[in-house]
């Protein structure tokens, strides 16, 4: 095994989800190392720093390159693209758009991140949206619609699933969690993305994994109404209750 990918809880870790989904979608062999987040952030950083250079996930180690560590989700994708160029579109313009879209997700959409923390297992009644959150949602709709319109879909930059789609997988999950529906092609695209086998596997494993962290659960809820807890529902269904 050449690649070892360290990830955080699948229930919460949007940053980890991106490269993991990409590896799975392209059938790139890797060894998964799941490290659970702790109840205390300072203690978590101390513990993670023992084996992760940035004390954060995701982090990729390549044993074929003297166990070199790549500790940023976008850098991991670019590193993998050196060996698997198909993770980006082959068409020049589509590739440029895909990189722009991934970079915007990597650095932007801060109000969606802040107001709608990732939690694949809960369904939350979002309630009134701030102007800032609505601007992010409007921009998201615009960007996704542009990609589908320019390159014909069904994926963000054309016919093939690429790194750009992997970068928007956490947003597809967030929209499900908080009941955010985008109009037109943007909404249809997010539905397709959420149903992609690699995305579905991550979400399903996140719903059932142990390691629930109270501070993340409370950050998701923030006094908002919990419409459904999919983990609890799956347990009840299993028990026939």
Automatic annotation (TrEMBL):
One of its GO terms (molecular function) is glutathione transferase activity. CDD domains: GST_C_3, GST_N_1. It comes from Trichoderma gamsii. InterPro entries: Glutathione-S-Trfase_C_sf, Glutathione_S-Trfase_N, Thioredoxin-like_sf. One of its GO terms (biological process) is L-phenylalanine catabolic process. The lineage of its organism: Eukaryota, Fungi, Dikarya, Ascomycota, Pezizomycotina. Residues 1-88 form the GST N-terminal domain. This is Glutathione S-transferase.
């Amino acid at each position: 095994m050449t690649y070892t990918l360290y990830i955080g809880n699948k229930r919460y870790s949007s940053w980890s989800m991106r490269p993991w989904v990409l590896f799975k979608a392209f059938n790139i062999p890797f060894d998964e190392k799941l490290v659970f987040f702790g109840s205390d952030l300072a203690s978590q950083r101390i513990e993670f720093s023992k084996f992760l250079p940035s004390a954060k996930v995701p982090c990729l180690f390549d044993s074929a390159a003297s166990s070199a560590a790549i500790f940023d989700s976008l850098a991991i994708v670019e590193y993998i693209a050196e060996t698997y160029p198909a993770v980006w579109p082959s068409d020049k313009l589509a590739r440029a758009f895909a990189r722009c879209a991934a970079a915007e997700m990597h650095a932007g959409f801060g109000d969606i991140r802040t107001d709608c923390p990732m939690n694949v297992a809960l369904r939350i009644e979002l309630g009134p949206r701030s102007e800032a959150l609505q601007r992010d949602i409007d921009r998201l709709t615009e960007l996704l619609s542009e990609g589908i319109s320019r390159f014909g879909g069904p994926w963000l930059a054309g016919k093939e699933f690429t790194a750009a789609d992997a970068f928007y997988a956490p947003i597809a999950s967030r929209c499900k969690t908080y009941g955010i529906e985008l109009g037109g092609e943007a909404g249809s695209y997010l539905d397709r993305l959420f149903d992609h086998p690699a995305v579905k596997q991550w979400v399903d494993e996140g719903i059932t994994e142990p390691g629930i962290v109270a501070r993340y659960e409370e950050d998701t809820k923030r006094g908002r109404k919990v419409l459904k807890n999919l983990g609890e529902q799956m347990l009840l269904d299993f028990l026939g209750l």
